[in-house]
Every structure is written in C-alpha cells, then in structure tokens.
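Run: sequence + inosinic acid -> complex structure.
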Amino acid sequence: MTFRCVVATANADKEAEITAILSERGDVELIERPKDVGEVEETGDTLLENARLKAMALTEATREISVADDTGLEVRALDGRPGVLSARYAGDGATYADNVDKLLGELGGSTDRSARFTAAAYASFPDGTEVHALGEVTGTIATEARGDGGFGYDPVFIPDEGDGRTFAEMSADEKHAISHRGRAFRALADRLVEIGALEA
Ligand code: IMP
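>> structure
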C-alpha cells in the first residue's frame, strides 16, 4: 500500500528531505500542496503544537493525510532563545541572515555556546488519527557563519557528532544522517509503520 500524503511546507528543500526520509521506510506518493492553502499562523506555545496546527489545517483543507514539521533552536546562554520563535527571531519578515546576525550579536563573546535543534514531526489523517515524533541534535554556535549549504541557522551550528564543520559545510546527506529533522521523521516513519500506514 502506498502512503499518499501532502506535506505542509512551502520550503522545497524541506519537502524533498521529508519525502526522502519517509521513502526509506516504505512507498510514498506526494500529493501536491494546493496553492490556495495559505500558511498557518504558528500560534502554539510548543513545536509539537505548531506542527499539529499545520498538519490539521492541511488535512481539513484537502481531506488527505498531511505531514508537517516545526523546528526550534535553543541556545543555553540565551535561556533557550530563539526557541519556538526561531523563524521570527529578528522580527517579522526577518531573513535567515538577519536571524543569524541577531543570534551572534546576542551571544557576543560568550564562552558557553551550547545549543540544541529540536524538530517536531506530525502526521494527521482524515479519519482523525494523529501520529507524532520528536528529534534533536546538540551542538555549539560558531563565532561566525561558515558554509553555503542548508538554510536558516546552519552556517553557525556545529553538531557535537560531527568533525567541527557547521551544518552548512556538510552535504545534505551528512546533515540529515544526524539532524533534528532527519531523526524526527525517521521516528515518525517508525510510528507510521507500526500503525500500518507505511509499508515497504
Ligand atoms: P520552521 O518553523 O520549522 O520552518 O523553522 C523555524 C526556523 O528555524 C526557520 O526559519 C529556520 O531559520 C530555522 N530552521 C529550521 N530548520 C532548520 C535547519 O535544519 N537548519 C537550520 N535552521 C533551521
């Protein structure tokens, strides 16, 4: 049985990554996200709530199985900021570079640069079934941006399990083998296999 789903993101890189990870566990067919379904406001207090809001809204609009994610970067010396506000850290309409600049500015010369990415992955079904999973990766914030790959805070995130390179200096496969999103969606795929929605 093929797992047919629509992915709740306008970010093509994220969509490709999510499909690739789920496809490792079973047959997946992507349904195109209707262009007239707008972005959902991320009004939840947690990553899981926001991922759920995005998935449920898309299921309601399409009556299809919907898959969504929400990601946050927590920096210890900043009391967990930017956290759930990661996308809008430097204000509404902030670019990735604006957010990175704000983060480096706030951290200044702090010697404690430890940080953690967490991703929530959510699948909602038209029959009301909901499945979710979390994934995380710990690391440190670099003192300056390095690398051209990835997106968001990747140029300043050095994963503990790596060799000192930032996520933006790694290939997509290297990043996703250890990334928060890779882990969250592999765990989500396991849940989907358990309930029989995804199979090889
Ligand atoms: P979202 O709400 O899941 O789209 O993610 C919130 C923000 O976190 C995005 O605007 C990015 O800046 C950042 N982000 C999400 N995933 C990643 C990642 O894999 N690497 C670096 N930054 C990310």
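>> summary
The pocket of inosinic acid is lined by residues 69-71, 86-87, 96, 99, 150-154, 167, 179, 181 (CB under 6 Å). The chain has five helices and seven strands.
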